[in-house]
Amino acid sequence: MNFEGDDIYTDADSNTISSREFFNVTSLGLSVTTDTSITDDDNLTADATANRDGPAVARLLDDDGDVEQAIAKDLRGGKDVEFDFGTVDGGNYSVEVTDNDTGTTVETDTIEVTEVTGDVSFPGSGFMTEDIGDVARIPVEFSNTDEATLVIGSDEQNYIAHVHVEDGDGEATVLFNTYAAGSEYDNIIDVADDDDSATLEGQHGDFYEDYPDDPPVPYQDHLETADYDMNVSVGHVALSETTDADAVGGLSLEERSTESIDIRTAPRGDDYSGLEAADVHARLGSNLTQSDEVASGDYAVHVIEASGIEGALEVGAHKSDISTTKGFLYGTNGQTSFTVKEANPGPNAEPDLVNLYSGSPQLVADEENDTYYLAVSTETSSTGIATTTTSVRSRTTTN
After folding, report:
1. CA–CA distance, 107 with 278 (Å, rounded to integer)
2. Which end of the chain is more exposed for a tag (fewer CB within 10 A), N or C?
């Protein structure tokens, strides 16, 4: 109906109305915008705006017009209000916004959500080598996903470790304790970086089923030297779903060995507590010099190149709550031992053993290079040898 200026207005009884009241009808101005092309890694969001405040409901509709989600919010006059539906599966969607007071509804164009195909892999050839008893470092690379399932071993090799890996930065290095494999030790699987995580979902195969469990300590049995299959799949999947893996690799486990033991000397004023391998490397050739004679009061630093003991030391430190240094010297349940004794006791005499622990020993482990630095102060160690300089021989053994 149009109202003109000269029109005469009457009420329901045909009485002329002498006064007039006016009102303006304005548009609600309801609108909604969104990105019409996203991936299933992105949150699907829509921004709604109106000329006035009021309650509204945004509905996410699938390709058939069915409501997938609904979010209620208050609109703010002249301001964008975001409705966030989170990540959704690949497909076509639209967002419908309704103003509750007026029933006015607006709808976006079609939103295309594309599925992103994640990928996981081993770097390089995917094949790596480690010595039995050490902790294998298995890197897994991630692309467009942050979850993977790693399998070490196979039915043919009579051992399988089924591992769930979560990534924090594009690559996760899984630590696999080959010494403890098969046991019920709770740290068989770990990660090198705190941003990542790995969980041992289970162990399988004859080696695991036949593993002795009285007492349940890993030193009773070990994996054999062999080439073990590995594969990795996108996501957190059951072992039965890993047959069509995204990448395959292998872990070759070889015999452990003790390659060499050298003696170096360091001034008595040095401190070897709390050092990392890089700190010791920086002292080589300067404060830390090679010698088979150590002046009384100085440090005797034993440089042991030995593989296959890293896993045993790690187990000893966690299961028996002893320091890695003490575990290296005396072992836990026969896992490792290290002795130093007099080189030339003379005829008809047994060599004196050096009481290393009385010398406040400090062990600095360089596991990746299979090297261990054992620093012992000769000022406080009780050797039972009266001379001021002592030549020593060292021996390391593992079961």
Report:
1. 62
2. N
